[in-house]
Structure formats: C-alpha cells, structure tokens
Request: fold
Amino acid sequence: QAQLVESGGGSVEAGGSLRLACVVSGYSFDGYCLGWFRQAPGKGRKGVAMVSTDGKTTYPESVKGRFTISKDNAKNTLYLQMDSLNAEDNGMYYCAAKLGRWCIGGFSNFRYWGQGTQVTVSS
Reply:
C-alpha cells in the first residue's frame, strides 16, 4: 500500500510563493497518477493539480497559471510550485495517488493520501 509524506507548507505573504513536496513509497512511483488537493477552512477537499505517468498535467481554472505540478521519478517525489498566492489559497494541502497510468476519473478515485501540510497566506 502506498505511503505519502508532504512537506514544505508554511506562512507566506500575499503574492509570495511556496513549493510543496511529497515523497511516495509502497509501489513503483511511475505507476501512479498523482495529485494535490486543498481543503480550505469550512470547505471540502478540492483538487488543485494532477499529473499522469506520461506527464500530462491538469489544473482547475482557479489555479491555472499560478500552480505547477511536477515530479522527479528518480527521487519518488512529487512537487507543487505555488506562485502569486492569495488568501483563497489558504488551507491544508494533501498529496494523493492512485494506481494507473491514465488518471482515469480525473480528480476522483484517489486512494492513497498524505497527512497534509498547512499553507497560510497573509496580507
């Protein structure tokens, strides 16, 4: 069973940047569809970035152009670069994985989750 551990969260001023990382173990790293999710205070979990095994990336309109997902297969590590952060980006960020090369179902059906890392944007 996959295990995921996030890091890189913290506090940043509006307009600033953060880079999150997630180390994945338990199965072949390049066999997973990988994603990042955000849970804002008082709201449900929302997908903010996703990458397939062939490198295809997906973002919702709310973060497109500001967030970039990437991965390093040699290090079994997933990254989320977040730029131009604003108050709406506040929340707990989770990395997640599901088996399969094609990310079938988009942001749905992720099976394995990290513990989360907090991102706070101040003004």
Observations:
- Residues 4 and 114 are 5 Å apart (CA to CA).
